[in-house]
Each structure stands twice: as C-alpha cells, then as structure tokens.
Amino acid sequence: MKRITAVAATTFMVVLLAMPAQAAKPPKPGSTRSAAITLDQSDPHLYDWVTFSLTYEKNGPDRVARPYVMVDCHQPVEMGPQGPVTWEAEGSEGATFMLGGAWSSSFWSLNDGRAYCVARLYSIDNQGGSPLLLAETSFLAEGSR
User: Fold this and answer.
1) Contacts 24+ apart (CB under 8 A), 36-42
2) pTM, full prediction
3) 56 in a structural domain
4) Residue 22 in domain
C-alpha cells in the first residue's frame, strides 16, 4: 500500500504553481481521449484511507503514459471548491490517500469537520510539458468517526 506524504503533495503543488497558467489544460477539441476517476469508498470521513478507480486510454495514439491523481479538500462545505484548501495530496495510479493526512486535524476539525473534496486525474508527459486534466470527481467527506 502506497502512503502519500504531505511533503510529496507540497512538492507537486509547488511544481504545478510554478508552471504557466495553462498548467491544467483540458483535452484538445476533437480529441477522442476519454477518461474517468471514481472514488472507491462510500461515506468517507476524516482519516479514512481512500482509493480511486481510473479509466483512461492505455493503447493507441491517445494513450495516457503517466496517469496522476491529485486530491484536495475545501472548507466550509458550502463554498465547494472555491473554499480554502484544508488538505491536499497527490500520487500515481494505485495510490492510497488518508483523507486529511496526519497533520490536518486542527484545520479539518473546524466547520463540523466536513469537507468538499475534488479528485482529478491528470496525464503527465515525459517531455516536461504541462499536466493535462483528463477527468475529475467530487465528494463530501465527513468529520472523523
């Protein structure tokens, strides 16, 4: 089981923020690329371990070479993804994420401990190009059990 650390998440975010404004480009018009990301667990809570099922092209000209998952959670829930980020993490396909991580209890426990979370599937090429946003899903994470 792969565990994602806050250091890795911070490093990825610094890389994303240092990229040009088009860092999360949508697929090109006319592209046949299709992808999906789905939360594998139901009723997730703070400190639960979650995984995601990824669907993407594995062969052909629209093949995704390096799928990557980015998860961020926001509070208060009513603000959705426009709310301040209280936790974020990233990892490759098959990664397992502890919602809130070990370090965010003081932040996440505010506002009822509930958070609006978004998981995004990206493709990262080997030529140093910008990550390509392939799919995203959102879910509500409750406070700790």
Assistant:
1) 36/121, 36/135, 36/137, 37/69, 37/119, 37/120, 37/121, 37/134, 37/135, 37/136, 37/137, 38/137, 39/119, 39/137, 39/139
2) 0.74
3) yes
4) no
The answer for 65, left when phi > 0, alpha when psi is -120 to 50, beta otherwise, is: alpha
What's the CATH code of the domain at 130? 2.60.40
SS3 of 1, please? coil
The tokens for 51 are 């995984």
**Total of domains in the chain:** 1
pLDDT tens readout for residues 83-108? 888 889 999 999 999 998 866 555 66
Which string of DSSP letters, residue by residue, matches 17-35?
HHS-TTSSBPPPTT-----
